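Two records follow; treat each independently.
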Amino acid sequence: MIKGYAGRVLEVDLESRRFAFQPLDEETARLYVGGKGYGTRLLYDRTEAGIDPLGPENPLIFATGPLNGSVAPQSNRFAVICKSPLTGGIGNATCGGSFALGLKKAGIDILVITRRAERPVRLEIDGDRDAVEFVDAGDLWGKGTYATQELLPKRFYHAVIGPAGENLVLYAGIVSNERIAGRTGVGAVMGSKRLKAVSVKGSRKLEMDDPEAFKKYTKHVRELFADHPVLGSSMKRFGTGGIVNTTNARNILPTRNFQKGHFADAMQISGEWTEDHELKGVKTSCIHCPVTCGRDVEVPGHGVVKGPEYETLALMGSNLEIADIKKVNEWNFHADDQGMDSISLGAVLSFAMELGERGMLATKLHFGDPAGITELIQDIGHRRGLGADLADGVKRMAEKYGGHAFAMHVKGLELSAYDPRGSYAQGVEYATTNRGGCHVQGASMYLESVGPLTINPQNLRLKADIPVVQQNLACAINSMVLCIFTTYGMIPKAVHEMDPDSFLHRSLRFALEHTPGALLRGAMSVKGKPMMWFEKWLTYITGTTFSSGHLQEIGARIFNLERMYNLREGLTAKDDTLPPRMLHEPIFPDQTSGHPLDQLLPRYYRNRGWDADGVPTRRTLERLQVRV
């Protein structure tokens, strides 16, 4: 077995209460690494087209990668893969916390959960005894994620759902500690199986090909991170909320259901404000991560809890025109406790507000008014009253009430908190990402809008090239399984410290903006020596050489397999679009329309090796060894 892998897949049938350990397929691991890639391959192979995402035939796959279980910073994450009940296409999410470490300690690379339990159940998996116990979970059903984890045995590592998952809220997530696999409704799939929690334990060790080189290099990376302006400074000081003021200054902070990109009171929901006024206790991180992007805040009646991240601050703050960060802290707590995606939650709330404003929905919700939102979050989690409609997401709400022009979703997945009208590459990424409108499947906005080298986010140069490179890299990262924030360290300290008005900085921006797209993609595809830390970690752990070119190829393979899955499930090129508001309503003085997607999408398809209908060509699939 390749080093870095436990070498086992655990399959659990909830209906028959049977389980079996199977050998990990080395060829699949070689082609797809692990995590999201391996899980997508399993999902494609084991399901027929058209299955009900909330039916027993939809498997719920928990997947780790070869870096999980190590002490590499940002490496203890797991991926969840299934058919999405929100989009009807590929569903996946990744999560920090401790569950990935538990799986690897139990000697499990992949956990596949099939069919449906007769009554609420939880699993206790002991990797040392190769045992799985099916434990009645009736006493936990209905409890929030915080209480559930408190009541579970302390010697295990846990992944749980809250009431949102139990009640099939289509954007319910799966929680480990205070982190959540939030997107695409993976928690609803877990709830549909009547599975309240999965608990794992074991004492197995991760085997590496070159443990001494790994240990020495990891020490160096920790020093590099500590000295990095983002990973060691701004994110450590302000968390992800530290970019609220940046996106606001760039006019891409979603405000009033994306009607605007600037919020006058942005400072009051920022990471700087949290640092000065709201921070309670320690700054938190996932296991072995030195970045400490988490923030503890106090919520009256609930004590000190995890605070909101950037996406929540934006989508439940500025996007609702709420400047009271204490309210955002409170809503974030309830979203986490209910076990639901705060991105989608903020989007459905703002959509309901605009529907009400236009007389299309009878509601007391209003922009700028926090009244009733806490109660509504509870109603969503329990599918009560108006909450039952909001639980189905923006796309289905628009189908019922109208408002398609300002329904902020792509493929059914609600848009993340970066306005693509001021970040053209990010807009292409939103439109084409297989799971829908999400930023962490490439994070193109970091290169063009919020990072230290903003390469004119509103011209067309490279805007059909950057997303290809970034999406491929993200697919590889999510298959290792690493945190996407590791890519933020790829721009070195020296660039961050340049004066933006200096000749050197302006020259560097000019050179980047005028680099031919083919040259950019070609340079990233060179299979040479490992350069980045995650490439070296993979090499030291597995004994196989990984470079940028190898990761681009692996990422492209995964991305194209996801694309073929979506095509099989009925999604087509018509779904590679943006909300009409993004395409037709300008927010910058020099804009006459919105995002120029129609000019960029054909280029993107060509760069991908797809035909004019967005279908991967046979040559592309053969080159990437994608079997369909």
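The next record belongs to a different protein.
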Amino acid sequence: MNPKRAIHTILTALLIGASFASAWAAPSKATQTPSVTMGSVAMDIPVEMIKRMSALTNHLSLSTNLNIRFRPSPNLGSAVDDLGTGQTQIAYLTPVAYIEARKKYGVIPLVAPTAGGRPHFALVIGVKAGSGITEPAGLKGKRFAFGDEKALLQRAAVESMGLKSSDFSTFAYLKHYDNIAKAVLAGDFDGGILKDSIADEFRSKGLDVIGSTAPLPSYIFAVHPGLPVAVRNQLRDALLALNKNTPERAATLEAFDKGYDGFAVVEDSAYDTVRKLIQPFQQ
């Protein structure tokens, strides 16, 4: 991005943030509860995303003095721009989406979900059980499914396992991990890239994992730079308090993602490893 354009974009985002920050600072008598809109990258079809995120927004609304609603985004790029332009004030982003939003709009990292107490996940390659494909190299000349076309980390992950897009007879972008898993099990594709927690959900349905990346920094909740610090802290503290210590909290986490057990504070530097991985794929 042109440096002048980048500076202009960030300044615009900050001005937008200042406008809704002033609205929070002095809520009208008719609306005493400040409103926050939460966004997310598209992990599933819209109906399922609303179900997953509504459990979380409802819990956060009850844990804070904020009125939190969910605004779905159709793809990675929209989730980034919605957060950067203030359409949403907090968003659940993939590592690549966060890196783009940070560079383009100066968004602020808040917390990341944990699995096994650590803010990490892995990308894996899944195939249909009984296919005879037992390692990534066995997919050369086969059909392969990716998710979002802008998800550069997926391509980097596949290459880290010894494969390139040119190795496949054909490949396609199916948007969501659930779509990929279902397409592989249906025989429409011989293999596909999946988030580890999604692969785990489909193991009982006949999915095998034949390759995995090293641990990667987790997905992340980031906030608009103009979000008031007091509101930001309320959201952070409410997310950090969400764990599996009570049935209600456990149910909220399970609805959001069955693989998560809590949240941890993360710094921007935690995503430097991903920046290095995707650098060869950036134009």
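Discussion point: The chain has two domains: 3-119+217-267, 123-214. How would you locate this feature using only the token line?
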